[in-house]
Structures are given as structure tokens and as C-alpha cells.
Write a structure and sequence with these properties.
6-stranded antiparallel β-barrel; alpha+beta
């Protein structure tokens, strides 16, 4: 990923991203919080089914819209993280990054089991 984009993402909290609907083929744009750990960018959904994740299962290519510190539309792809050990490493870091009373380690097993997480990679 471009160094300037990564630097912006390290500072920013929110991005938009556009996926292609797995059934409709229509573009779907969504605002979401992202996370940067060890120079890698992640997007996570903590509970239940997520349409954006299902879209990425169908087509891993998407557009990441950086919109706070700088403006850029970046063509990227999702690496779906399904390995249990990797999920057990990443989900606690996601929870800690929220610093919220609503999201606690008390429910970490639920997040690992039912949540979704992707690594954003260059196309």
C-alpha cells in the first residue's frame, strides 16, 4: 500500500469502501471503522452476518475510500481471515482499539466465532 495512504489510515478512524453486490452486481458503499496493526490494514465486523463480508466472499476486489486526513480511492482486495489462530490474535486487538465499555474481552469468543475480519491488500 502507498506509504502516504498507510500514514493517513494510521491517523484516521473511518473509511468508506465499495463492494460489488454478490447477487445484484450493484456497487455498495459503506462507512466503517478500520484498524492498522503492524503496518497492515484490517476491517472487522464483530457480530452476525454482514452484507459487505458476503460481497467480498463473492468478489474480493473492492475500493477503499480514504476520506479524512487525505482523499484517495484505492483499488484493493480482501484477504478473508478464517484461520482460528490468526483470528484469536487479531480480534483482541480490534476490541482494545475501540476503548469502549460496550465492547469487552468478556465476549471475545463470540467475536472470534461469529465475527468477520479481512486484511486489506494491494490488488
Amino acid at each position: 500500500m502507498d506509504a502516504n495512504v498507510l500514514k493517513a489510515l494510521e491517523q484516521d478512524k473511518l473509511v468508506d469502501f465499495t463492494t460489488k453486490g454478490r447477487k445484484s452486481g450493484e456497487e455498495r458503499r459503506l462507512e466503517i471503522r478500520h484498524h492498522v496493526f503492524d503496518g497492515k490494514v484490517y476491517i472487522a465486523g464483530l457480530r452476525g452476518k454482514k452484507g459487505w463480508y458476503a460481497n467480498l466472499v463473492g468478489d474480493a476486489n473492492f475500493t477503499l475510500h480514504v476520506k479524512q486526513t487525505m482523499k484517495a480511492d484505492v483499488l484493493v482486495k480482501a484477504r478473508l481471515i478464517t484461520d482460528d489462530a490468526e483470528r484469536r490474535k487479531l480480534f483482541p486487538m480490534v476490541i482494545e482499539s475501540y476503548a469502549s465499555d460496550e465492547l469487552t474481552m468478556e465476549h471475545i469468543d463470540e467475536y472470534i466465532e461469529t465475527g468477520h475480519i479481512i486484511e486489506v491488500q494491494d490488488r
